Amino acid sequence: KRAKRPVGAPDKSLAKKVTKVGIIGAGLMASQFALLFVRRLKVPVLITDLDQARVDKGVAHIHEEIGKLEAKGRLDGDTANQLRGLVRGTTDKSEYADCDFVIEAVFEEVGVKQQVFAEIESVIAPDAILATNTSSLSVEEIGAKLSHPERLVGFHFFNPVAVMPLIEIVKTPATDEQTLSTAFVVAKGLGKNAVLTADAPGFVVNRLLAKVMGEAARAVYEGTPLLTVEKAFAPLGLPMTPFQLIDLVGWKVAAHVQDTMSAAFPDRFFSSENFHALAELPEVVEKDKHGKVTGWTKAAEKVLKGAVGS
Ligand code: 3HC
User: Is 115 inside any structural domain?
Assistant: First the structure.
């Protein structure tokens, strides 16, 4: 017999009605959230970033994605215009005053996240919900400086946001029932399945993924050719190989997850130092003309496509 609600999920009747969503950050992940929120919840969405140029870029990206859906016939012209009208970019945080659900997708550093929440908390209502999309930082620590830590919850999306069906909802010892309930109702409204996880390093998904990405990296570090690792992964039947996955989430984010996991469990996860050292191997990464790492395996991927199954 199936449980009526996910294990640990609170009573949805406690949920707060969400009428306006705030997103902090206007980068790729944040823009994808904005699109999902306007498309699924049909509520006004505000996005913000450090400066107007970043905000404009984020809004332009969302408009572009709406345009693509329109071109594919997934949205009619009126709906597309209506969705564009729901997105607003601003650098003025006071505009967040009437948002009842604010999610951050800024740089993965506790201090940065604490800072943006402190700014937002000073303008929003005391019972507005705050959510963090952190992929592996402690949600409790992110909320440590809040006046109302009971309204903070982890709300962790996966790449690509539009497609991946899961959201990890992370509860801290302070998170109250209304916050948790609202998070579950919002996740459902977005068309996602939500699971409740403990506030432990990597939650659940990144705990598993850090093993996959870390062990693949360890094998290459220990001398196995990268393409061998990628081909050897095929029998597991996952949609992406470990290095394709690292490319998808981005090397920086993958390295950050590895840092968190190896710091928390040094004897169980591939050392982040060695993971970073892989970024120096030319057969593993592509670098731009300034020598900056732009991706793992992009160049190898073409070879891999031909190599798999051969
Ligand atoms: N953005 C939006 N939509 C996308 C997309 C993207 N980047 N990539 C693919 N899609 C959509 C396509 O439009 C298509 O939609 P449709 O069926 O409605 O036309 C659908 O996804 C399937 O795409 P394709 O047929 O082109 O390609 P695949 O069948 O190969 O699927 C994939 C692509 C869904 C990305 C699949 O490879 C996959 O599931 N990969 C694993 C991804 C994964 O594990 N993500 C988790 C990463 S970890 C993370 O994010 C956590 C962080 O904290 C580190």
Answer: yes
Same domain membership, residue 66 and residue 176? yes
Residue 127's Cα: distance from chain center in Å? 24
| Ligand 1 site, CB within 6 A | 135, 158-160, 162-164, 206, 209, 239-240, 245, 248-249, 253, 257
For residue 160, whether the previous peptide bond is cis, meaning omega lies within 30 degrees of 0, is yes
Q: pTM of the full predicted structure? A: 0.90
Percent of the chain with pLDDT over 70: 87
- Ligand 1 atom nearest the C-alpha of 72 is 19
**With bands split at pLDDT 50, 70 and 90, how would you rate the model's confidence at 192?**
very high
160 Cα to the center of ligand 1, angstroms: 5
Whether 309 has a pLDDT exceeding 90, the answer reads: no
For residue 229 the two structure tokens come to: 């690792």
